[in-house]
Amino acid sequence: MKDMEIWSPCEDITEKVKSKNYGILVLNVPIAFNCSHHFLTNLWDQAKVRMTVDGGTQRWLDWLKMNNYNLDEVRMPELFSGDMDSTPEATLDFFKHTCTQVIYTPNQDETDFVKALRELHKYCEAKCIQIDTIYALADTSGRLDQIIANINALYKCKQIIGSCKLFLLAKNSLTWLLDAGKHSISIPQPLRDREKWCALLPIGEPCQVSTTGLKWNLDKQKLKFGNLVSTSNTYSGSEIVTVETDHPVVWSMSIDNLL
Ligand SMILES: Cc1ncc(C[n+]2csc(CCOP(=O)(O)OP(=O)(O)O)c2C)c(N)n1
Ligand SMILES: O=c1ccn([C@@H]2O[C@H](COP(=O)(O)O)[C@@H](O)[C@H]2O)c(=O)[nH]1
Fold it and tell me: May I ask which residue range the UniProt record assigns to the signal sequence (predicted)?
């Protein structure tokens, strides 16, 4: 187990320069970021590998058109996968004339998201592309089953993408899994100053957690559904939040006004 896992994803996505070793994946969710559209196109353009997942492909094309991008001038995804139940025939046809690899993943025992992670990993291995991070555009509104399935993907992804980190990036939140052990999470000043929300969610299993840097810290307390779950928490002002947990726990934080 590592001594302390260091996280600074807010800085990474806003500065977009710290690590360019990331992949981006567009799920079938509304692309409704409150930010300037340059943020998204930049995140897309600078990725080492781009992927759209089933209905996410149409969402991405529609978003580009809505923002007046010329499709001939935009980088197409390297990969587009799914069981294709949400993709119009015309969109599949469109991709036949591009360099995008279209991968049909019909298995109905896993979500298109999880299957996409597997395909992305295979692609990177085959092309010797090194990525250490994947941002999945995964808005947290709408279907509760899919929201939970997307969180389940955080739990499953280690078996699929190894040590590569997976973040669910929504228009106003960033969510990822903290493994058992110690973590240091860097909190940008605007989030601390505005006392934006953060949460520790023991979704997979109960866990014993200690924290520093939060308004409502935990001291070897058990987080468990049906008992204590740390929601609507916020920051005490410290630049760093530390979390020590004996089992994996989901960390979610507001990124309102950051992008
Ligand atoms: C016990 C069990 N419950 C439910 C399912 C059904 N199931 C799980 S994942 C999956 C595929 C979901 O596909 P995805 O494209 O991710 O979502 P969709 O929008 O089509 O629901 C299906 C059908 C199953 N195979 N096993
Ligand atoms: O309401 C939704 C629908 C879908 N997702 C995510 O997108 C992929 C692909 O979905 P399709 O419906 O097959 O196009 C799915 O696996 C989910 O991860 C979602 O988050 N919310």
Answer: none
* CA 16 to the chain's CA centroid: 15
Question: May I ask the CATH class of domain 176-254?
Answer: mainly beta
- Is the distance from CB of 30 to CB of 56 less than 8 angstroms? no
Give Cα 127 distance to the centre of its chain. Answer: 23
- Strands 133-137 and 165-169 turn out to be parallel
Measured by CA distance, the residue closest to atom 20 of ligand 2 is: 146
For residue 166, count other CB atoms closer than 10 A to its CB.
24
CA 146 to ligand 2 center in whole angstroms: 6
In this prediction, residue 2 carries a pLDDT of 64
Ligand 2: lining residues by beta carbon, under 6 Å: 27-29, 53-56, 82, 85-86, 111-113, 138, 142-143, 146, 150
Domain 19-171 class, CATH top level:
alpha beta
Query: End-to-end alpha-carbon separation of the chain, Å?
Result: 33
Question: What region does 239 belong to: left with phi over 0, alpha with psi -120 to 50, or beta?
Answer: alpha
Nearest-angstrom CA–CA distance, 172 and 47: 21
What are 70-129's pLDDT values in tens digits?
Answer: 988 899 999 999 999 999 999 999 998 899 999 999 999 999 999 999 999 999 999 999
| Ligand 2 geometric centre to CA of 30 (Å) | 10
**Residue 112 Cα: closest atom of ligand 1:** 16
Per-residue model confidence as pLDDT tens digits over 34-85: 566 788 888 999 999 999 999 999 999 999 999 899 988 899 999 999 999 9
Q: What is the DSSP letter of 141?
A: S
Q: What is the CA radius of gyration of the chain?
A: 18
Domain residue limits, the chain: 19-171, 176-254
